[in-house]
Amino acid sequence: MAAHQTNDNEVVFHLDGEEFFSALSAAMDQVAQTAANVPNTYVRMAYWNAVHDMPLVHGMQGLVAGAAPAITLGDLLETKLRAVAMAGHPVDVILFEPSRVERLEDMGKGLHEDHVQFSAFLNDWRTGPSGAGEYGERIRVFLEEYRAWSPGGVATSNHQKITICSINGQRTVFLGGFNLTRIYWDTRAHSRTDGPWHDTGVAIRGPATTDVEQEWLRRWRKSDKPVRPANATVQQTYPAGAGAAAPANGARGVGVTIATTNTEGRTERDIQRLLIQHIQNAGQYAYFENYAFSDPDVVAALVARLTPVPAPAAPPPTVLVNVAVPSGAYRYLDYVSWAQLAFLTCNSVQVPNPAGGADLVVQRAGALSWNVATGSFLHEGWLQSTRIRWQLPQPAAAGPALPGPMQSAPVSSIVAFNGGLRFYTPTRAADGGNVVPVYLHSKLALFDDRVAMVGTANFTYRSMMYDGEMAAFLDSNLLVPEIRRRLFEHYNTDAAAIAPHNAANWSANADANMALWGVNGLTAGALYVIPLQMANFDKQPPGGKDGWLTNHTWW
Question: What value does the CA radius of gyration of the chain take, rounded to a whole number of Å?
């Protein structure tokens, strides 16, 4: 699918599970309440992981210390889908089926078992014993293998997460980081006791939904089941300022580009291509949030923007990277990314002295050259050859200083930075002055209050290069500032937070949060973004099985 922009879409931004799943539940209810004789009315889904008994409403029962509304049968995904089917409308679901090799590992085995059970409960579900009627099989489930290219035959997955609700041919698409399992259900306050979870998504109406459905149809046609119905309805447009007012947390007149990663018989890497394009064009700020930030090409694009250039070139944008507390292989991979960006923006760097003795503290001010060198990413395993490089003036016996030798050090040898770009992570304050990490699963980027990316693609090598992914690039000077405001306020809910919540105040808020933490001044239950420290990372590649069995292309 060639990525192209469609205009005059309506887009609503959903912040965290309660908001997203409530909207998804309401959209399914609308389909179920539509008369059976209304054509082109259906629900289509495609998910990396889903369970039939996922509660779309009241999902906090058992996840918080206090009382929560009880989950009822009517809250469950399977009940919602059966209601659509009983109303006379088809439901078709695609679920990712891990390969036989992947099923030997815990994650692949768990996905397979979830989806076999989902299919057992709902596949070929009929509204009557004979299955008579145009759509005798009211609910169909397709367990889809992703037959894609990957380096060295790495196990691949289709990671897309899509719901399409159509009424009389007019679609609403739900797209984002949310799978249909209970771990994704959390409130905006992140009050879960078993691990707060942050995610984002969008609901889209208008011409862009055709592109989403075309990708869904491509995948469904791999099954032996016919498409039903063939919806060729022209989608309504939603110009800004025309007709009804824009919905809450949304906007109309939004330009939307649906982009994919796909290596299943063809190569599509439009998500990475558009991300790099927007990095190159950013003038004020570039913000990223995900559980990791490790794709070498995306990082290289930021390196190019941050590498010092002579005046009068425009200054680079402020770069903000918000990630989950690094774990596993990402303790190292995120470090390699951060070290490059921090070096290019720091005041000085401390590295071992190759001659022995005390460490060198290299000042950036006055340096003749200050840059990063990388190796051949695809063949290099764990990116070990990434190096920082500098050139300082060398005093001469007489006359002006001469250029000194070009010097370098591997990023693994860096001792400390003074100043420079930092990675951040969200937390929730707990009793006793402690903080609880908020797991950041969202896949979102913002550029200059004009463009947002929201979708299923992580900022990792596999999501950019070979796994099946989908992202919506949203072009709107109405919607994107609102997304930024809601997100940045979301991460700094203390009354003392510095306003306005924009890129210019992000770092100051993080520093203020750290200061409050240091004096036991955090407010229990409030959310705080804090900077990660060197101790949060690993400077060496993973050991054990991950170290010898995998490399950066697996992650």
Answer: 25
Query: Pick from 149, 153, 175, 156: which is nearest to 164 by CA?
Result: 175
Q: Are 384 and 374 in contact (CB under 8 A)?
A: no
**Tokens 């699918």, located at residue:** 1
Beta-carbon contacts of 428 under 8 Å, excluding residues fewer than 6 positions away, are: 190, 191, 196, 435, 436, 438, 525, 526, 527, 528
Each as own residue / partner, the long-range contacts of residues 505-509 (CB below 8 Å, 24 or more positions apart, any chain) are 506/318, 506/320, 506/424, 507/320, 507/422, 507/531
Centre a 10 Å sphere on the Cβ of residue 517 and count the other Cβ atoms it contains.
17
> Residue 458: is its pLDDT beyond 90?
yes
CA distance 323 to 260: 22
Is pLDDT at 134 greater than 60 in this prediction? no
Neighbours of 496 (CB within 10 A): 12
Give me the amino acid identity at 72: T
Over residues 320-374, the pLDDT tens digits come to 999 999 999 999 999 999 999 999 999 999 999 998 999 999 999 999 999 999 8
Alpha-carbon distance 24 to 8, whole Å?
22
Instruction: Show the 3-state SS of 496-547.
Output: CCCCCCCHHHHHHHHHHHHHHHHCCCCCCCCEEEEECCHHHCCCCCCCHHHH
Query: How far is residue 220's CA from residue 148's CA, in Å, rounded to a whole number?
Result: 16
pLDDT, tens only, 493-522: 888 889 999 999 999 999 999 999 999 999
Give the tokens for residue 509.
Answer: 């808020």
Tell me phi and psi for residue 215, to 5 degrees: -70, -40
Inter-residue contact 343 to 420 (CB < 8 Å): yes
What phi and psi, each to the nearest 5 degrees, are found at residue 307?
A: -65, 125
Confidence (pLDDT) at 124 = 80
Please give the model's pTM, rounded to 2 decimal places. 0.96
* 3-state SS record for 324-337: CCCCCCHHHHHHHH
Buried b (16+ CB within 10 A) or exposed e, 146-183: bebebeeebbbbbbbbbbbbbbebbbbbbbbbbbbbbb
- How does DSSP assign 384-438, residue by residue? TT-EEEEEEEE--SSSS-EEEEEEEEEGGG--EEES---EEEEEEE-GGG-EEEP
Burial letters for 199-213: b for 16+ Cβ neighbours within 10 Å, e otherwise?
bbbbbbbbbbbbbbb
Label the pairing between strands 197-198 and 170-176: unpaired
Any idea which residue has 């990223």 for tokens?
A: 288
Q: Which spans in 1-154 are helix H?
A: 17-32, 77-86, 106-122
Q: Is 379 exposed, middle or buried (0-12, 13-18, 19+ CB in 10 A)?
A: exposed
The gap between the terminal CA atoms of the chain, to the nearest Å, is: 25
Residue 40, token pair as written in the block: 């082109």
How many residues are listed for the chain in this entry? 555
Q: Where, residue-wise, is CATH 3.30.870.10 in the chain?
A: 5-274
- Which CATH superfamily does the domain covering 5-274 fall into? Endonuclease Chain A (3.30.870.10)
